[in-house]
Design goal:
With 442 residues, the chain is of the alpha/beta class. It has four domains: 99 residues, no CATH class; 42 residues, no CATH class; 138 residues; 113 residues, Rossmann fold. The protein has 22 helices and seven strands. It has a four-stranded parallel β-sheet with strand order 2-1-3-4. Helix 14 packs across helix 16. It is globular. The model has no long low-confidence stretch (mean pLDDT 92).
């Protein structure tokens, strides 16, 4: 009997058996890579997503056999290196994901390959540095150091040197570091509001600031707090936190992900037991707790508990709106917004809650852009990938240019600056939380 062409059933995800000895068996890996690459070659629906698929198809088309069996095994790694685990192929394109019998999970196969590569020691020093967000952030966030680092990142001469030493592209936008972190800015915050449980929400929130929101764009943390308090939702900071582990996951350093879990999960679970919901301002961090950690640790009850109680901020606000508890007293319209739907938000399968909320603002129109920005946090800053990342982002930039909107925005702050890099003008992105603050007149 012939295999079904695609599936009409909802995608499901199998746990990541990363502690199984066979997971790190390179012969087994290459056998699975060949199987999946052959399926992808016969389908090619994902050619417009990232650069992994064009790389694969070019390798096949330039081989002697014009099939996957003609591609040299060492060239398989080229496909792996271009995958930054956005998950869009799995969630939006691939017709052969589980429960289809072909059982294709391209992102997690790439993750397995990255883990093997990391275990073999075949990872650049630069990649380890870029993924060490807590260590770099602490050093760069020292008051005097922060000013020096930010100034250096704007110097063409320094950036040329940085490319030679670390392989960081001189044209890539690097986020600033702030000594007045988000956690410091909210250190004395207290709320006068009493929590109102409604629907699945408890009505009181523990804010997981994220390493990026805390040190690189602390206004995300303060804007989130302003918006939630304006909606009479008391906010408190999570007692302590480390990086969620997403940068290390994308590197293939799964042991470091486990260390981050051990640091964060007990703290978050304790907050949930005390009646708090968890909210974080960066989609990748929310996705880490909603999907990746639960798949890596399916038998960890605390991980599963956090999965059920962590929210994107706009998801949380719209759950409250569903029960009539959203403040709709907007003071000003926002005109037209070019809204980029971030990949790690789209794959959470909750709909476009940011767009839905912004559309509630009077005289505000949203032009939604459903294309990857090509940033990924580290991919766009690497010398060998920067130009490709900008090519991936070009359709997004073109849409923003043609829309001539009053603002352009993305839930992923790094995607926002990738768009700004493509526009190459004096404009800047406005995070949706900042836009909502403006609409409320905060």
């Amino acid at each position: 009997m012939a295999a079904r062409e695609g599936s009409l059933e909802a995608p499901t995800r199998h746990p990541l058996n990363w502690k199984d000895l066979d997971f790190y068996n390179e012969d087994s890996l290459f056998k699975e890579l060949e199987r999946v690459y052959d399926i992808c070659h016969g389908c090619r629906r994902c050619v417009s997503l990232c650069n992994s698929f064009p790389t694969l198809f070019d390798l096949v088309d330039e081989s002697d056999t014009f099939e996957v069996d003609g591609v040299a095994k060492e060239d398989y790694w080229q496909v792996v290196d271009h995958c930054y685990l956005c998950d869009l192929c799995y969630m939006t394109k691939c017709p052969y994901v589980p429960p289809h019998e072909w059982n294709v999970d391209f992102p997690h196969l790439m993750l397995r390959a990255k883990a093997i590569k990391y275990k073999k020691g075949e990872v650049k020093k630069r990649d380890k540095v870029l993924s060490a967000t807590d260590t770099v952030g602490k050093l760069a966030g020292i008051p005097v150091v922060a000013g020096v680092v930010n100034a250096a990142n704007k110097s063409a001469l320094v950036r040329q040197g940085l490319e030679k030493v670390l392989g960081v592209h001189p044209d890539a936008k690097i986020p600033e570091y702030h000594s007045k972190t988000g956690r410091k800015l909210l250190a004395g915050h207290s709320s006068n509001h009493q929590p109102v449980p409604i629907g699945e929400t408890t009505g009181k929130v523990a804010l997981y600031a994220t390493c990026y929101g805390n040190r690189n764009e602390p206004h995300l943390v303060t804007d989130l707090c302003k918006v939630f308090e304006h909606n009479e939702i008391p906010v408190t900071l999570v007692e302590k936190e480390q990086c969620c582990g997403m940068p290390k996951l994308e590197l293939g350093d799964l042991e470091a992900v486990d260390e981050a879990r051990n640091a964060n999960i007990p703290v978050l679970a304790k907050m949930i037991d005390a009646g708090f919901d968890i909210v974080a301002p960066v989609p990748s961090c929310v996705l880490m707790y909603k999907q990746e950690l639960p798949l890596m640790f399916p038998d960890d009850a605390q991980v599963q508990k956090v999965k059920e109680h962590i929210y994107d901020p706009f998801e949380y606000l719209m759950l409250r709106h569903k029960e009539g508890r959203l403040n709709l007293d907007f003071k000003q319209s926002l005109g037209k917004i070019s809204y980029h739907a971030a990949c790690h938000l789209r794959v959470q399968n909750m709909g476009y809650k940011t767009r839905e909320l912004l559309q509630l603002i009077q005289d505000t129109a949203i032009d939604t852009i459903e294309r990857c920005s090509g940033h990924d946090g580290t991919y766009a800053v690497k010398s060998e990938f920067h130009d490709i990342s900008m090519k991936i982002c070009r359709p997004v930039v073109t849409r923003v240019q043609k829309a001539e909107s009053d603002y352009y925005s993305s839930d992923c702050p790094m995607a926002g600056y990738q768009i700004a890099n493509g526009l190459n003008d004096d404009s800047r992105p406005y995070h949706p939380l900042t836009l909502l603050c403006m609409a409320y007149g905060l």
